[in-house]
Amino acid sequence: TEERLRERFETTVEHDQRVEPRDWMPEGYRKTLVRQIAQHAHSEIIGMQPEGNWLTRAPSLRRKAILLAKVQDEAGHGLYLYSAAETLGVDRSELTEKLVERRQKYSSIFNYPTLTFADIGVIGWLVDGAAIVNQVPLCRCSYGPYARAMIRICKEESFHQRQGYELLLTMMNGSERQRRDVRDAVDRWWWPSLMMFGPPDGDSPNTQQSMAWGIKRHTNDQLRQKFVDMTVPQAEVLGVELPDSGLAYNPERGHYDFSEPDWDEFHRVLAGEGPCNTQRVERRRAAHEEGAWVREAAAAHAAKQAERGRD
Ligand code: FAQ
């Protein structure tokens, strides 16, 4: 019967239908999803730190309220994603342990520092922009719970992106100092944003199988190109220059040509040697440990409720 179940799985994927938690699935499919969804969830949670860094120093009440809401949205995204991972038979606490022990990854992008308030705008514009390009196709992921979580997340992400762009437009219409901060932040975040899409296709061990399973819908390089094509005109409207002398429209390809990111830097960041890796993981570990009493209280409450239910 395993053969029959496998056939059914393959037909489901081939016909672009959704695989649900109750369905049989190959072990490799399950593992790949746990890896990707856990990394994605960890990214949302770790991703609260670079922006959270500016909550107490936002320049106005309005900017503070906006930033607070965005960071809270990210916590929510992390929770939807941990819930999606849990439908695959893993436990959220087990995933958190793996994160703080550095046995699971999170996006390279969150290992860079936020030096001025302009970084908040640039994260919204470039980092959320890249996240949208990567995540919209995931709304059609073959695994139902992940695809459904992505629909909701993408709606909020596109709002985040506009928030960042609006902040940058305001700063670019401000003082010389504000314009300088925006340009400096764009220079620092551009290349790391391109790296968010993962290694070039030739060095991406997972892409082929993930595409065959309908988990990924496009390759890393395809999505990176899409992001560049989308972002260059936005940079022009904003009046900032992207830090790549190789950037030029190629009419034959119908796309922008651009230079190769520094993949050595990418691998160093993945190996834990980015500017903020240690700080990010240690902060997460401390928050987890400081929250132990909440988990204990919740477990005690649940146990008491269960006991009452038995009477
Ligand atoms: N950082 O074979 P591939 C956000 C790893 S957006 C770290 O190409 P795959 C929103 C990869 O895991 C950010 N590691 O892998 C937000 C694999 O290692 P492994 C989160 C990376 O999975 C905005 C190895 O390299 N978004 O949070 C990265 O097919 C603002 C080989 O790579 C997602 O996670 C990287 N950049 O493709 C929040 C989207 N790239 O696991 C707060 C879902 C690659 O074998 C503020 N994920 N690696 O040890 C994906 O689409 C895919 O997993 C890719 C990687 C495209 C990231």
UniProtKB/TrEMBL annotation:
InterPro entries: Aromatic_CoA_ox/epox, Ferritin-like, Ferritin-like_SF, PaaA, PaaA_PaaC. It holds the Pfam family PaaA_PaaC. This is Phenylacetate-CoA oxygenase. It comes from Actinopolyspora erythraea.
